[in-house]
Design brief:
Helix 4 runs antiparallel to helix 5 and helix 5 packs antiparallel against helix 6. The longest helix is centred in the middle third of the chain and has 17 residues. The protein starts with a helix and ends with a helix. 79% of the residues lie in helices and 0% in strands.
């Protein structure tokens, strides 16, 4: 109940109030879960230093591989949001060392590389593995389409992104990516339609 109420406060932008409620719930039997929730609230408010501290504190209470992987994933995402890409990659590598078939981590790391237009062969392998694990994930197919785009494989990118649009509905990023592909293919009318859909979804 406390976490749910804190989430509502966080959505309303009342980060300090949400954090106060969660901190009041600490020192109980579910401290680790409360610290994870606290990190999420601080990240929502772009209070990255405080979010990082909460993640560090949650890591100290993480005992199982699953709990550790979860914390490493959170830290990877947190570092990526701050454009600390080396630290982010290190954290996602820790997730994959524990669980080599962690599809969200494979996708996140692969997309991060593709979006920065670096190590594209590795990015492709990471994302393709995520797609193999979850072939109906629109988010992973979007990542696959984007790495194809970065590699200059426009027809493959189009196929992957068209399917991603079907699976994700009105995701603005997927529409934006498909628009980029159509533009490169010389399909200007289709590109404009996708960019318009992206703007409406935003």
């Amino acid at each position: 109940v406390v976490r749910a109420h804190a989430d509502v406060l966080g959505d309303l932008g009342k980060i300090d109030d949400a954090a106060k409620e969660l901190r009041g719930a600490l020192n109980g039997p579910r401290d680790r879960e409360t610290l994870v929730a606290l990190a999420e609230i601080y990240e929502k408010g772009k209070r990255f230093s405080e979010a990082g501290q909460a993640v560090d504190d949650a890591e100290k209470l993480s005992t199982s591989d699953e709990e550790k992987a979860n914390v490493f994933f959170m830290r990877g995402a947190l570092m990526e949001r701050q454009k600390k890409f080396d630290a982010s990659e290190e954290s996602f590598r820790k997730v994959l060392a524990i669980d080599p078939e962690n599809a969200p981590a494979l996708n996140y790391l692969g997309y991060m590389l593709a979006d920065r237009n670096i190590r594209l062969d590795e990015a492709y392998k990471l994302i393709q593995k995520a797609v193999d694990l979850e072939p109906d994930s629109g988010a992973y197919l979007d990542s696959l389409g984007w790495v194809y785009f970065r590699q200059g494989k426009l027809n493959e990118a189009e196929g992957s992104l068209v399917r991603a649009v079907d699976l994700t509905g009105q995701d603005p990023t997927v529409h934006e990516h498909l628009g980029e592909v159509y533009y490169k293919l010389g399909k200007t009318k289709e590109a404009i339609a996708q960019w318009t859909a992206s703007m409406k979804a935003y």
